[in-house]
Amino acid sequence: MSDLHARHRSVLPDWLALYYDDPLEITHGEGRHVWDADGNKYLDFFGGILTTMTAHALPEVTKAVSEQAGRIVHSSTLYLNRPMVELAERIAHVSGIPDARVFFTTSGTEANDTALLLATTYRRSNTVLAMRNSYHGRSFSAVGITGNRGWSPTSLSPLQTLYVHGGVRSRGPFADLGDAEFIDACVADLKDLLGHTRPPAALIAEPIQGVGGFTSPPDGLYAAFRDVLNASGILWIADEVQTGWGRTGEHFWGWQAHGQSGPPDIVTFAKGIGNGMSIGGVIARSEIMNCLDANSISTFGGTQVTMAAGLANLGYLLEHDLQGNARRVGGLLIERLRAVAAQDPGVREVRGRGLMIGVELTRPGTDLADPDRASAVLEAARADGLLLGKGGGHNTSALRIAPPLSLTVAEAEEGAAILESALRSTQ
Question: Which of 22, 129, 315, 380 is the most exposed place for a label (fewest CB within 10 A)?
Answer without folding.
Answer: 22
